[in-house]
Design goal:
This protein has about 45 residues and is an all-alpha fold. About 75% of the residues lie in helices and about 0% in strands.
Length: about 45
């Protein structure tokens, strides 16, 4: 259940980057990826 919420947040945040790619948005994306176990992706963001 919690993983689903992280995936939903990640999806929404990736949409946000199309309008505004700010440091806080990128940080939030990395946080979602980290919580989903996507370590490599989190480090890249």
């Amino acid at each position: 259940m919690e993983a689903q919420r992280w995936r939903e947040a990640l999806s929404l945040l990736r949409e946000v980057t199309k309008a505004a790619e700010t440091a806080s948005v990128l940080y939030s994306i990395a946080l979602c990826e980290e919580n989903l176990g996507l370590w490599r992706e989190a480090l890249e963001d």
